[in-house]
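During the first year of the project, the team set up a workflow for recording each protein of interest as an amino acid sequence followed immediately by a discrete structure-token representation. This format lets reviewers and collaborators read both layers of information side by side without switching files. As required by the reporting guidelines, we include two representative entries from the current panel. The first entry is reproduced here exactly as it appears in our internal archive.
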Amino acid sequence: MTPTDSVAAQPEQPLWHQGWYRPATRLDSPNFGPRPPQIQVDLIVLHSISLPPGQYGGPEVHQLFTNQLDWQAHPYFQSIEGVTVSSHFFIQRSGVVWQFVSCDDRAWHAGVSSYRGRTNCNDDSIGIELEGLEGKPFEPAQYAALAHLCASLLHQYPIAHIAGHEHIAPGRKCDPGAGFDWVQFQKSLGLHPQCLPVEVQQRLSS
């Protein structure tokens, strides 16, 4: 066997290691905790975020999730000063995927929430932030990256439900909003409509 053959014979690394998605760029957030015992992670929550709102491509979201944001750098930041939040994933407009918290741990993305008869959705969910402004369109590269990530999550965890932040905290949150194409997302993964919120199911059947 030649050296080249030896390298080629090496098995590929698994996509997951201790809740970390290897294709993502890892940046650890201090804002997380253990999940409750015997919890079943069966929900994905989709969000949108941009800092300052409507501005893309900067480091501010990364800084927020790692407690490095300069609260004086923009007037909007003073309205969220002191918050300690995180999401498992953040998908930039370019399609680059970042991970801040292991999916085996509890990220702080949902806040006060309730869905499918359960409260405290942080306990049993995986949060994915899309760089964008609620109600505005997202980029094709983001949909492609999201589909790959969710397909892998569906294989790795017993995911039975996917919802937006607006569905788990109605009246308090509006993201990802009307700009998110649930029909395209559903088709890209071949999801059963019952995996999705009722209002999305109705849209799919119309």
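The second entry, processed by the same pipeline in the following quarter, appears below.
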Amino acid sequence: MTTPVTAPAITRRHFMITVAAGSAAAAWLAAAPARADKAMVDEAMKALIGDATPADGAEIIRLDLPQIAENGNTVPLGVSIDSPMTEDTYVKDVHVFADGNPRPDVISFHFTPKSGLAEASTRMRLAQTQNIVAVAEMSDGKVYMTQAEVKVTIGGCGG
């Protein structure tokens, strides 16, 4: 002989709590993600380079980015800095920022004179059309900056 198993009865109170929790979770998931802006990029940059004022690096830093990214989920990024990479003069760090992503800092590359060339490439996600900023810190304390706009047709970071 088998004994029937019955599910515990759900009370109205438990049902309402479950519905409220589900609604709150849905609202949280549907909310637009926060986006960085120029002020957040400046703050992140200051955290990395201190009070140094970047000079125009258009002649020194080369950003290899598409003008239009058809999919923001995977945008190729290449950066190279014109430097002899000797013990006396070399690129120490290159920092990349995006002013429309949820977080402004994208990546930092670290170099030494033994690197030979100050070049790196990767892929990044971009949430929307935005400026990509590259900052190069040199061994002599100089800092250079350049930027380029990438137009994103399909968002990558939830956009």
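For the second entry, the following points were noted during internal review. The chain has one domain: 38-152. Residues 38-152 form a domain with the Immunoglobulin-like fold (CATH 2.60.40.2470). Both points are flagged for discussion at the upcoming steering committee meeting.
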